[in-house]
Each structure stands twice: as C-alpha cells, then as structure tokens.
Amino acid sequence: MGKSRNARRGRAAAETVVEDVDGGRAELIPDRDRPRAWSLLIDGAPQSHVDLDDPAHLSFEYQRRLGHVIDLAAPAGRPVRAVHLGGGALTLARYLAATRPRSTQQVVERDAALVQLVRRELPLDPAARIRVRSADARAGLAKVPDGWADLIVADVFSGARTPAHLTSGEFLDDVRRALAPGGLYAANLADGPPLAHLRGQIATAADRFAELALVADPAVLRGKRFGNAVLVACDHPLPVAELTRRAASDPQPARVEHGRALADFTGGAAPVTDAAAVDSPAPPPSVFR
Domain spanning 55-266: which CATH class is it, in words? Predict the structure, then answer.
C-alpha cells in the first residue's frame, strides 16, 4: 500500500492492497491463478472479483447468475442501457461492456473512496461507456430519466446487509419508472433460515411486476444455509427455460423458481413498505470463513 501501480507491475507477484474506504477496510487480493485478477473484500466480506485480462470471466456464483440475466436481457451482443445500483469493483459493468460493446452504463456507488481505489488499482477500459456516480443508490436512481434503462441491477450491501430503503415497494416504483418498456430488473439478495427477508422481497416484487423468477442454490431455497439469491422481475415473459439451463450448468448449480412454485415459496409474506422496511439480515460469521 502506498506504492504506485507501476511499481507493483514490476514485481514477480502482486501484493494485497489494503486501504480504508467509507464503508470499512477494503482489501484487493490478487488471484494466484489469474495474473491480473483481484478479489475485493470489505471488512473481510467478499464483494467482487475482477479479471482485467478477461472481464467476461465471472468468478463469484451470484455474479455468474447475474451474468446470465445480462446475457438474456436482449439478443446476444446488442447494446443496452444499464443502471447498476452498487458498484463494488465494477465487475458486472465490465462484464456487460465486454459482452455488449457500445452499451451505455450508469453505476451508482455510495462509497466515493472505494470508487477512487477501484479506478486507481483496477482501471476501466477507456472505451467502455461506463459513468460512475458517487451517491446513495436510491438517490442516484431518482436521477435516471423516465424509461431510460433496459436493465437495472441492484447489488447493494452495507456491512454485508442491504439497506432497508432499497427493499420496499416504493423503491421498486422508482425502478419501474426508470425502466424502458420491456426492461428487466435483477437484484442480488442474501438471506438464511427462516428466509423471511427473501420471501418478503419476492412478495414486494410480485406486487409491482407481472413476471418473476428466482435463481438460487437449492440449499438456500430449502433454508439449510445462508446465501445469495438473484431475483429477476419484468412485465413480459421471462426466458425461464434458458435461464434454468444456464443456472443448472454452473460450477455451483442453481435452481430457478418461477410461476406458481415461486408464489407458493413466499408463504403468504406481505409486500414491504418504506414504513416497515428493515435491513436484510446479517450473515453468520461462518459464511466468510
């Protein structure tokens, strides 16, 4: 820490970069199997993985699942307009730029110091049309023009928890406002037994969107362990069969719930409102061991 990136480039092996950011202690840890790949941790919690030589490589399982959603959001290779709520190391924005050249992207990341660290240590491709704004996710979303986005991805965590104001129906009202007709919304959610948060998020999305799908590890869906689930929502039929095929073929296979099975999974949970919203549950310490 403290030495320039050019100095580190001359070393036989990259070293971990540690720096205090607004959200805690950030660590950029080199991937020993990939020469220019790094993992970002905040206070010990894994946030992102980036391969500068291959931005289409997605290492984390939840990011691969969001990658499948990005792949299916429009015909292959077609540029889209995307909003990312939560930036981390900008992994998904880099992925979209690599797989859908000429796309226009806005990233809203509250942690300005983290944005500076990532820009310095893991620079973006200058040709990528990625604008990064340091702001609260909901405040940043409010500045997106009506009907602008083909895709909105929410992946926002503070202290490993999603802030309450990003879990409500009122928040999803603004998501709908910013989405173009036929647009797609995807959210990275985290929960463990008894899955009350996850069920509430599904009920909230079902109250605002006509079509939903949930992608998750079967053990998470059974309430056997804490983990991530990707919720997909829109107002047109989803490519469920193809999403199911891709999720099942991942190194950590996932299941896709949709339709009646997903409705049954909510177990009668009520939609979340701003007045009743709470942060998502904190993961148990064992998750990051």
Answer: alpha beta
